[in-house]
Amino acid sequence: MTMKMKRSLLVLATLSLTLLAGCASMQKWLKSAFKKPQLTFKTARLSQASLSDATVDLVYQLNNPNPLGLSLASVNYAFFVEGKQVVAGTPPKGLNIAANGKSELVFPANVKFADIAPVVMTFLNKDSAAYKAQGSIGIKTPIGVISFPLEHEGTFEVPKIPQVQFDSPRITNVTVQGATVEFPLTVKNRNSFPLPVAGISGALKVAGANVGNLSTGNLGMLEAGNSRQLTLPLKINFLSAAAAANALRSGGNAQVKWDGQLVSGSQNVPLDISQLLNFRR
To answer: Water stress and hypersensitive response domain: from which residue to which, for each copy (predicted)?
Structure first.
């Protein structure tokens, strides 16, 4: 080995030792300067809900006090409702965590009520349902991956069936053969979140006689706590509904019964509405 080669090797060895010492110093500095982020549970909310299923979002808040952004390295997440595991997802807004601030991490879980209870109507009669989240996330940082637990238990509001009620019907176009009756209907969303209603329909009886079918058509999304007023006209033939003819010709009170179904999501909910109504002329 020549003297020149020996000098080159000595220079390389010296540079390597210097770089190693620098990296060790840099790593030590990072460990002392880096502040561990804090993960806290914020809330549980229904982002979408119908009478057949709901998406439950568990929202966590990550406080990153460092001047550099971070990212999620791993997610291990499971979600249970009434003791039964349901499909859970990862944060839909990506895996980046802002520097010097707070970021929300949203973990969605789709809950199909038919998977929770053998009879969906039994589940819908509950005020709330118990949930449990478990798992962990790994946050990629300059000093390695830091793991945080996702353990949390609580309850969420079970969707309530809308309240459906008739107001006093109005009789129009009375003839010998029949009459047109306008049935005012109020549909109220009793939930603190919007609820889709694809429609309400069913057979109608007046004074015990079948007079036809009423249908609302698609009502779309009912806003939280709001009511929708509808007027449903129905032509009634006196010959086929003789028992109702007297009440409709003269006005006055008559018992109205609507055996219908309300559709929300993929769930059909039976409605049995019976009211004593005053028919107006």
So the answer is: 39-155, 164-278
Q: What angle do CA 7, 12, 17 make, to 5 degrees?
A: 125
What is the C-alpha R_g of the chain? 33
What residue type is 94 in one-letter code?
A: G
Nearest CA-CA partner of 253 in 211, 206, 213, 184: 206
Are the CB atoms for 202 and 261 separated by under 8 Å?
yes
pLDDT (tens digit per residue) in 193-249: 999 999 999 999 998 989 999 999 999 999 999 999 999 999 998 887 887 887 777
DSSP conformation letters of 133-150? EEEEEEEEETTEEEEEE-
Q: Which domains does the chain have, with CATH numbers?
A: 34-157 (2.60.40.10), 163-279 (2.60.40.10)
Rounded Cα–Cα distance for residues 128 and 44 (Å): 12
Distances (CA, A) of 178 to 117, 174, 242, 257, 275: 47, 6, 10, 19, 22
CB atoms within 10 A of CB 221: 12
- Among residues 264, 276, 123, the alpha carbon closest in space to that of 208 is found at 276
- Per the rule left: phi > 0, alpha: psi between -120 and 50, beta: everything else, 108 is beta
Question: CA angle 146-151-156, nearest 5°?
Answer: 140
